[in-house]
Amino acid sequence: MAVGTLALFYPVFLPMSATAIAYLGHRALYVDWRAVLTHFFTGPGRTSRILLAFFLVLNWKSLPLAWTVRVFHTFIYHIIRRPKKLPQRALFHYGISASRTSLLETDYNIHKSNSTYFADLDVSRSHLVTHLLQPGMPIIGDNAKHQRVRDKNGKLVEGAFGIGLGAVFCSFRREIAPLQGYEMWSRILSWDRKWLYIVTHFVVKGKVRPTGWDGRRMGPTRERVVLADGSGEPADFSKYVIATAISKYVFKLGRFTVHPALVIDAAGLLPERPGEGWTGGETGTGTPEDLGDLDEQGEWDWRRVEAERRKGLQYAEHFAALDGTNSLFDGGEDGAVGYFPLG
């Protein structure tokens, strides 16, 4: 998701899309669909047309503009279907979406090409971020009215709101066969003073179900087994993981980087934190108080949120450290092996 995409979505893409759909619907009323379908399935050349239609259906997600449709569908879907308010515990919950490997995504090893995972990640992340943070985006975007974001000198920040993708890491464990279905489970992993980290697991379809849903029921669930000591079930769900990716997003107002906690707080998903809040302290993510013994079944307060953020940050910090590899590029100081065509 590029910076400025959301800034253009509401005033430009949404009205254009609505106008185009309305026009196509108007034109469709004047088409004799029975005659069209009869000719399609029985007229000369029907075999070629049917095979082509079948091929296009199997490979729709790999067709031109399909990625754009998939991503912008996430925005429209969550504007229409998102509950008015989510519980604060939803902050680290998974957003689940399903897909299937098309034939055009298959490589010479006869499985889903590694490069195509990143297009799926775009869609999965867009679902999650739009669903969780969509209420906070207009608040941060209209900063002149809500006055949530200020620079280090206390000056109110101006500019269009946008989201930028900073980096993606993906670890592959097993292959996905052609036409095989799979699920993408994405959730917020952590955040620091600049980046929001998101972890996505590609999971075998139908093998794992959540114990519940935040809001209306959206599919089957499973029972959570509670042991005698009050802990959860020791099931190993990692055996169903096909691949795992970590992505990092940055929020912008113009060219100014917005603290992720400000966006999350504007969406109503952060409990109040004492002291300097979620953007204070030396690290810019709150003063490092001792969290003490946490009751995982207790109230979803700032201590539980901070404990989860710190746990995820242990992984995110290693990922963020890879940014330093940019400095390894020396411009071929000692030479290069060649310059190759068809790159």
UniProtKB/TrEMBL annotation:
| Database matches in InterPro entries | HotDog_dom_sf, THEM6_lcsJ_thioesterase
Q: Which domain of life is it from?
A: Eukaryota
Keywords per UniProt:
Membrane, Transmembrane, Transmembrane helix
* Spans traversing the lipid bilayer: 50-80
- The region called Disordered is annotated at 274-298
By sequence similarity, the record places it as follows: Belongs to the lcsJ thioesterase family.
Q: What is this protein called?
A: Capsule polysaccharide biosynthesis protein
Its organism's taxonomic lineage begins at:
Eukaryota, Fungi, Dikarya, Ascomycota, Pezizomycotina
